[in-house]
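ARCHIVE CARD
CATEGORY: sequence design from structure
SOURCE FIELD: tokenized fold
FIELD CONTENT:
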């Protein structure tokens, strides 16, 4: 399989605390940003100091066609609403034959939003859902633990 095939034909498998929530066809928002604070120094007009303050993690959005596994996410969302603590998640990028390409571990994951399908009698579109997760950082290979 070529790199181009892998980039096009990939699915994302979401697991929360070891419990699989199914495969998704798209994943966006995996990323982080180092927030910088600017400090001006009196008498130094040549530059402004850039000081790192914290790392900010963007929310992750996963989308897929509605499946039997779709009932799992609203159940988890309802548990969080009743006070269930944040969880640990893993997102695995896999080829169509199930071979692992790479994975990302997420700490302190909470569901932020679930968007269900839009139905229209005059449309033959596939019913899809999107979930959005917040997290407080990555873990695993390359992330320091």
């Amino acid at each position: 399989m070529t790199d181009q095939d892998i980039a096009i034909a990939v699915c994302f498998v979401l697991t929360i605390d070891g419990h699989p929530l199914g495969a998704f066809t798209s994943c966006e928002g995996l990323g982080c940003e180092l927030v910088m604070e600017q400090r001006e120094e009196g008498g130094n007009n040549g530059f402004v100091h850039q000081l790192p303050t914290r790392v900010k993690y963007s929310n992750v959005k996963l989308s897929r066609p509605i499946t039997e596994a779709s009932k799992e996410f609203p159940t988890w969302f309802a548990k969080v609403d009743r006070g269930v603590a944040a969880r640990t998640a893993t997102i695995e990028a896999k080829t169509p034959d199930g071979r692992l390409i790479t994975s990302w571990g997420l700490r302190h994951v909470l569901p932020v939003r679930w968007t269900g399908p839009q139905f229209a009698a005059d449309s033959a579109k596939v019913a899809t859902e999107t979930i959005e997760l917040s997290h407080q950082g990555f873990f695993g290979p390359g992330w320091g633990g």
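CARD ANNOTATION: Residues 49 and 79 are 45 Å apart (CA to CA). Strands lie at 11-16, 19-24, 26-28, 32-39, 49-57, 60-65, 87-94, 100-115, 128-134, 138-139.
SHELF: design records, drawer C
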